[in-house]
Design a protein that fits this description.
The complex is a heterodimer. By secondary structure, chain A is mostly helical. Chain A has 6 helices and 3 strands, in the order ααβαβαααβ. Chain B starts with a helix and ends in a 5-residue tail after the last helix. The chains are: A mainly alpha, B mainly alpha. At the A-B interface, helix 1, helix 2 and strand 1 of A face helix 1, strand 1 and helix 2 of B.
Chain lengths: 161, 45
């Protein structure tokens, strides 16, 4: 968190330096020949085609596995939370919407938020594509991977981006 | 993860361990994020 707040001296911080060193070490095991020309879903496809063993991605990769490789979550592929040591940390990237204080059209703004949070929008965008809807809670995750992640998010102290 | 990649490389030399799509810069950040969290913790304050 301190890093993203700009509170780390990146030129001298030992943890940041070690992070970059490990990041560089991982490159030896990555697709360095074509990584810069691939989008995130193409990297997922590399796993689906058997060219790669894993990728680091959010739950929306589930939709890419299903659509791109006809793989089913919990059957053809799984997911693990990383890192787990020394602490199990789940980085949660939410798309969030809100109404600002003094919004010129508060009624319209609230109406938009109702649309965003509705099952009619959440299901085709989040549930089918692979994102994870947290609200309304009546929408149930459609895969064991997302179900486990949602339980984790709803029950733990969560660090959001 | 590096240990796992070593094992995968030994078992299947033709297989890439970690697929990365750097055309989307944020997907690279995911990799660095996880390493930083492992080494530095969440430091939520």
């Amino acid at each position: 968190m301190k890093f993203f707040k700009g509170e780390i001296d990146v030129a001298n911080d030992a943890i940041f330096k070690e992070s970059l060193e490990k990041f560089a070490a991982l490159q030896a095991y990555s697709n360095m020949s074509d990584h810069s020309s691939l989008t995130w879903d193409q990297a997922v496809s590399a796993v689906g085609s058997g060219q790669a063993a894993m990728t680091i991605m959010g739950t929306w990769a589930i939709g890419a596995f299903i659509k791109g490789s006809n793989w089913q979550p919990g059957v053809d592929f799984g997911a693990v939370n990383y890192p787990t040591k020394p602490d199990r940390i789940l980085l949660f990237h939410p798309d969030t919407y809100g109404c600002t204080v003094g919004a010129p059209d508060p009624e319209q703004c609230l109406a938009w938020l109702k649309v965003v949070a509705s099952p009619e929008l959440q299901i085709p965008t989040d549930v089918i594509q692979g994102g994870m809807s947290l609200a309304p809670t009546s929408i149930r995750p459609s895969s064991p991977i997302r179900s486990a992640r949602r339980c984790r998010i709803m029950s733990a102290r969560t660090l959001t981006s | 993860m590096i240990a796992a990649c070593e094992a995968i490389k030994a078992a299947k030399p033709e297989m890439t361990c970690l697929a990365v799509g750097s055309k989307d810069n944020w997907s690279d950040v995911f990799v660095l994020d996880t390493i930083m969290m492992e080494l530095g913790g969440p430091s939520t304050t």
